[in-house]
Specification:
The complex is a heterodimer of chains A (282) and B (425). Chain A is of the alpha/beta class. Chain A has a single domain (32-277), classed as Rossmann fold, CATH 3.40.50. Chain A is built from eleven helices and ten strands. Chain A has helices spanning 11-14, 73-80, 110-116, 131-142, 148-161, 165-168, 181-193, 211-224, 237-243, 261-266, 271-277; strands spanning 33-44, 47-58, 62-66, 90-98, 101-102, 117-120, 199-203, 229-233, 246-251, 254-260. In chain A, the strands form two sheets. A six-stranded mixed beta sheet of chain A has the order 6-7-8-3-9-10, sandwiched between helices. In chain A, helix 4 packs across helix 5 (148-161). The two termini of chain A are 31 Å apart. Mean pLDDT of chain A is 86; it is low at 1-27. By secondary structure, chain B is mainly alpha-helical. Chain B folds into two domains: 50-186, no CATH class; 204-422, MetI-like fold (Orthogonal Bundle), CATH 1.10.3720.10. Chain B has 18 helices and three strands. Chain B has a three-stranded antiparallel beta sheet with strand order 2-1-3. In chain B, helix 1 (8-48) packs across helix 18, helix 13 packs across helix 15 and helix 17 runs antiparallel to helix 18 (391-421). Chain B is elongated, with a radius of gyration of 30 Å. The model of chain B has no long low-confidence stretch (mean pLDDT 89). Classes of the chains: A alpha/beta (282), B mainly alpha (425). Chain A binds chain B through residues 81, 83, 86, 88, 111-115, 118-119, 121, 123, 125-128, 137-138, 141-142, 175, 177, 188, 191-192, 195, and chain B through 238, 306, 308-319, 322, 326-327, 331, 423-425. The structure holds adenosine-5'-triphosphate and magnesium ion (MG). The site of adenosine-5'-triphosphate has 11 residues of chain A, from helix 2.
Chain lengths: 282, 425
């Protein structure tokens, strides 16, 4: 569903704050919806962390989530692959559909869901195993290869895509935990794409990286977006502007505004969004 | 009078002083612990070194067929009926022909261990070809001779208060001079079971009993404990019930071991009718006792595995079991091993529950299986410490040293394994 509100500039002021989240606008050709969340709320021990968030993630597009610390970006991201299930006393309401199927339905196998919706965490968390085994773990448990050669291919390909191959190709048997922070993060990205997920969730993947590695990851996100649907949380406005097609601005558990990145950064509807991206608060 | 605030310099000096004081307390504590350890080990070594040696008489023994093989058919039944005592006393008399009077000969015979004739019988039963031959045989001397030679008892006290008479002392001197009597390495201590005669008593029966019991304990408590801990830590929904169970497990870990002995007695002996005094029952009872400790140790090892590792595996689509088997358990192995070995060490040193299930009986035979009657090392120490013979004091200390040696080896193994499996993340 795509609403085009751009034709009526006056509507912007008339929209009650945080109630309507119009779909992406502009001349961007719209893709099919991959993940559709409707009125998603999250409670931690009864305390609300996310408030009625409705938002559509389009297929093979990069969607960025921005907002001040503690506003619920990670919480929302974790809803999409049901990682909140593992948190004690965490309750999620509302509906989230992946390709039209509600992911909370009892028939949905959460293990399968997470194979389809991969995740890269804010803090690099390689397994204390060899670099090779880190990448091979996903393909192994999901049976994604027939022969050892194929597995070697998957590992090489994933490392290549994550821009780590040249640095580690001679030491695949060394511990993944022995890499530098930035290398570990790229290892985690390679590990996530090795299982060929349809959606890739990235929670501040560059927060531990230097500008060069960051640029490499952004390039990678760009490349991946031709095949994958990506949702990325970032604190860097420039990064959101550079890599994403759509941007959602969260504030205190509300999705304040969701629109095409171009629109958010050039002409946001909401006062709060404007204040945030111009650095007046947050 | 107004209270002035201390200057930064004063504060700094105070902080340093507190630091030094704290380090001093620590050192003092460590020092006291070390002194206690040295005292314990020192007294044990002083009292127990003697078990390594045993006074033995080496005499030519004439295996007279008329005495050894009354039926004359060399059958084990006949050989078992032989009069080996006479062989021993004859050999003694030949070594000291000057002793002629009956009463004196009897006191001379007291130099030899009662076990010597059994030793000869064992030899002949094992090798019937010995009958009719003459052999130099090393036989255990009595515990009184042993104590005399080792100087454990003073030789200066009046004769009527000594266990060795002046006459015996003279014979001992003669035999020593002739090279027939002396202290030798006491292999019996490490190869025999318990005995009424201190010179024939060994710890092998107790060691095997302890070993068999610990095997049972480990086989039962390790899998059960790990499974329980994994379930509680990784699967169970945290909440009131989990808290309730946790409190109870911690409570069980603090229950006095004798209570587990009562439980073992009621459950395994009275209800399930398992054999008394068996390492199987001892092991099961010790497993009950070790289980809570093991669960606690394993849980804390599991808890020390970073959540991020679990999240990483889950996010890749690993099932809960795969998360545990592929990631959490391998990382928790060092902690689990340390915990279980320390639990085993505690079980090895445990006496009270074994008393209740009958592993306290006097058992001469070295156990061969899990259901043979047996005793355990700490119980053996208890039994020997309770014996009136002076020579058992030495055995008690010796057995204690053996026990301490095993404990040291186990705890060393725990440290070794921990270093070996330790991983960084
Ligand atoms: N496991 C948890 N238990 C309880 N409260 C939580 C938990 N995780 C997050 N919260 C709360 O939910 C709110 C949103 O947290 P969230 O991690 O989603 O913020 P964020 O937008 O990702 O912040 P940041 O940019 O700092 O990562 C915060 O107020 C936080 O305290
Ligand atoms: Mg976050």
């Amino acid at each position: 569903m795509t609403l085009s509100l751009t034709t009526e500039p006056d509507m912007e002021r008339a929209t009650p704050q945080g109630l309507i989240h119009p779909g992406p606008a502009g001349n961007q050709a719209s893709n099919p919806v991959k993940v559709d969340s409707e009125r998603v709320s999250v409670f931690y021990e009864g305390k609300q962390a996310l408030n009625n968030v409705s938002l559509e993630v389009q297929e093979r597009r990069v969607t960025a989530l921005i907002g001040p610390s503690g506003c619920g970006k990670s919480t929302y991201l974790r809803c999409l692959n049901r990682m909140n299930d593992t948190i004690l006393n965490c309750r999620v309401t509302g509906s989230i559909r992946l390709d039209g199927q509600d992911i909370h339905e009892p028939t949905v196998d959460v293990v399968q869901l997470r194979a389809r919706v991969g995740m890269v965490f804010q803090k690099p968390n390689p397994f204390p195993k060899s670099i090779f085994d880190n990448i091979a773990y996903g393909p192994r448990i999901h049976g994604l290869f027939r022969h050892r050669d194929e597995l070697d291919g998957i590992v090489e390909n994933s490392l290549m895509k994550a821009g780590l191959w040249n640095e580690v190709k001679d030491r695949l048997q060394e511990m993944g935990t022995g890499l530098s922070g930035g290398q570990q993060q790229r290892l985690c990205i390679a590990r996530a794409i090795a299982v060929n997920p349809e959606v890739l969730l990235m929670d501040e993947p560059c927060s531990a990286l230097d500008p060069i590695a960051t640029a490499r990851i952004e390039e990678l996100i760009d490349e991946l977006s031709t095949n994958y649907t990506i949702v990325i949380v970032t604190h860097s406005m420039q990064q959101a502007a550079r890599v994403s097609h759509f941007t959602g601005f969260f504030h205190m558990g509300d999705l304040v505004e969701f629109d095409s990145t171009e629109r958010i950064f050039t002409n946001p509807r909401q006062e709060r969004t404007k204040d945030y991206i111009t650095g007046r608060f947050g | 009078m107004t209270r002035s605030h201390p200057t930064p310099e004063q504060l700094l000096a105070r902080r340093h002083a507190a630091d030094r004081r704290f380090r001093l307390y620590g050192l003092a504590g460590l020092g006291i612990a070390m002194v206690a350890l040295v005292l314990l080990l020192g007294t044990m070594l002083l009292q127990g070194w003697g078990v390594l040696l045993q006074a033995r008489l080496t005499l030519p023994i004439q295996f007279d067929p008329a005495l050894v093989d009354p039926k004359g058919d060399r059958s084990p039944a006949s050989l078992a009926m032989g009069d080996y005592r006479v062989l021993v006393s004859r050999a003694l008399q030949e070594a000291l022909p000057e002793v002629k009077e009956r009463a004196q000969r009897r006191t001379l015979g007291k130099l030899m261990s009662d076990g010597a004739s059994y030793q000869l019988q064992e030899m002949v039963l094992a090798n019937p070809a010995l009958v009719g031959t003459q052999q130099q045989v090393s036989l255990a001397a009595s515990d009184d001779v042993d104590m005399w030679l080792k100087g454990t008892v003073s030789k200066d006290i009046p004769e009527n208060q000594r266990r060795i008479t002046d006459a015996q002392a003279g014979w001992i001197a003669t035999l020593e001079k002739a090279g027939a009597l002396g202290l030798e390495f006491n292999s019996d201590f490490f190869t025999r079971g318990d005995s009424r005669d201190p010179e024939m008593a060994g710890v092998l029966g107790a060691i095997k009993g302890s070993f068999l019991a610990l095997v049972v304990t480990f086989l039962i408590s390790f899998p059960l404990g790990v499974a329980t801990a994994v379930y509680l830590e990784e699967y169970a929904v945290k909440g009131r019930w989990a808290d309730f169970i946790e409190v109870n497990i911690n409570n069980l870990a603090a229950v006095p071991s004798i209570v587990f002995g009562l439980l073992g007695l009621a459950l395994f002996l009275n209800f399930m009718h398992m054999p008394r005094s068996a390492p199987l029952v001892g092991g099961l009872t010790l497993a009950l006792m070790t289980l809570p400790t093991l669960v606690i140790a394993t849980r804390s090892a599991l808890r020390s595995v970073p959540q991020a590792i679990r999240d990483g595996a889950r996010a890749l689509g690993a099932s809960p079991l795969q998360v545990v088997l592929h990631h959490v358990l391998p990382l928790a192995v060092p902690g689990m091993l340390t915990g279980s070995i320390i639990g085993m060490a505690r079980a090895l040193g445990e006496t009270a529950p074994l008393l209740l299930i009958g592993m306290v009986a006097f058992i001469m035979d070295v156990p061969d299986g899990f259901t043979d009657p047996a005793t355990a090392l700490p119980v053996q120490i208890f039994l020997w410490a309770d014996s009136p013979e002076r020579a058992f004091l030495e055995k008690t200390a010796g057995a204690t040293l053996v026990l301490l040696g095993f404990l040291l080896a186990m705890n060393g193994l725990a440290v070794l394994l921990r270093h070996r499996f330790e991983r960084r993340w």
